[in-house]
């Protein structure tokens, strides 16, 4: 099967677990494995896949909502795992033994070709060993996945700037978080530069990036306690408009992700 462009599905996204699949028809990569192996099998099946279709797993960072089933899935399907050195060290004890040939290093800022798909990692700001986001390109189309960051630096914006489709964190509504039941030290962590992007911050990032090329952004990693799908979209759009960034739905769309089910397959090159 030749290269048919990039397609992806966000199997599930949120504070309870995260996993995304990107494919070009020949190579199929999963980003993170934040559920039990059984749950990952169920989510894959909902999108017509099994673990045997996967080429490998890319890891963003070692928090359990991103690596819960990583070791089990990799062992079950004999899959290589790609992560930077500090992430490997930080997750070593949690994922169990992995054969040496499946322990693959992908340094922060490094690019690697998987067939005709180029994957590049970029550093982000989060309270983990060395967290990253990823971009995927086939030379014509570009998808970027960027969640779990306290703020978006100029380097992050540069990495994701020319994306056709972006998966971007919109973790919390600031007021819902402030009024919520979490202890203050956790609230402070979430609100800080090493925490998570708020809806408003997500909108500010997008207003800097919207350049006519980006067609859609999936709002990801929504907090179960401190956000809602409709509120996230409304707040992001409002933050963009506050910064003079107006758009028609025919030009650019904000799309939902779900904590309990996959998004439909999306072809990156389609309008």
From TrEMBL:
Keyword Hydrolase found: yes
Source organism superkingdom: Bacteria
SMART domains named in the record: Lactamase_B (SM00849)
Pfam families registered for this protein in UniProt: Lactamase_B_2
Key words, A-Z: Hydrolase
GO molecular function terms noted in the UniProt entry: hydrolase activity
Start and end residues of each Metallo-beta-lactamase domain: 16-221
Catalytically driven reaction(s): 3',5'-cyclic UMP + H2O = UMP + H(+); 3',5'-cyclic CMP + H2O = CMP + H(+)
Its biological purpose: Counteracts the endogenous Pycsar antiviral defense system. Phosphodiesterase that enables metal-dependent hydrolysis of host cyclic nucleotide Pycsar defense signals such as cCMP and cUMP.
Name of the protein in question: MBL fold hydrolase
Originating organism: Paenibacillus woosongensis
Taxonomic lineage: Bacteria, Bacillati, Bacillota, Bacilli, Bacillales
């Amino acid at each position: 099967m030749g290269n048919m462009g990039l397609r992806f599905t966000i199997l599930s996204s949120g504070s309870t677990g995260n996993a995304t699949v990107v494919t070009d028809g020949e190579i199929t990569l999963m980003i993170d494995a934040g559920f039990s192996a059984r749950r990952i099998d169920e989510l894959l099946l909902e999108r017509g896949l099994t673990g045997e279709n996967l080429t490998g797993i890319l890891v963003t960072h070692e928090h359990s909502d991103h690596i819960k089933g990583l070791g089990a899935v990799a062992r079950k399907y004999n899959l290589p795992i790609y992560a930077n050195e500090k992430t490997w060290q930080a997750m070593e004890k949690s994922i169990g033994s992995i054969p040496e040939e499946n322990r693959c290093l992908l340094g922060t800022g490094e690019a690697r070709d998987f067939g005709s798909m180029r994957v590049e990692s970029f550093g982000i700001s989060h309270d983990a060993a060395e967290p990253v986001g990823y971009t995927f390109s086939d030379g014509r189309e570009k998808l970027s996945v960027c969640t779990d960051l306290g703020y978006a630096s100029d380097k992050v914006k540069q990495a994701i700037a020319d994306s056709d489709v972006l998966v971007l964190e919109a973790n919390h509504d600031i007021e819902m978080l402030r009024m919520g039941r979490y202890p203050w030290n956790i609230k402070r962590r979430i609100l800080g530069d090493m925490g998570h992007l708020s809806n408003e911050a997500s909108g500010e990032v997008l207003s800097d990036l919207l350049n006519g090329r980006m067609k859609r952004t999936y709002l990801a990693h929504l907090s179960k306690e401190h956000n809602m799908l409709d509120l996230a979209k409304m707040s992001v759009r409002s933050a963009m408009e506050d910064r003079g960034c107006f758009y028609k739905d025919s030009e650019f769309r904000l799309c939902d992700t779900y904590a309990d089910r996959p998004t439909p397959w999306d072809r990156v090159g389609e309008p």
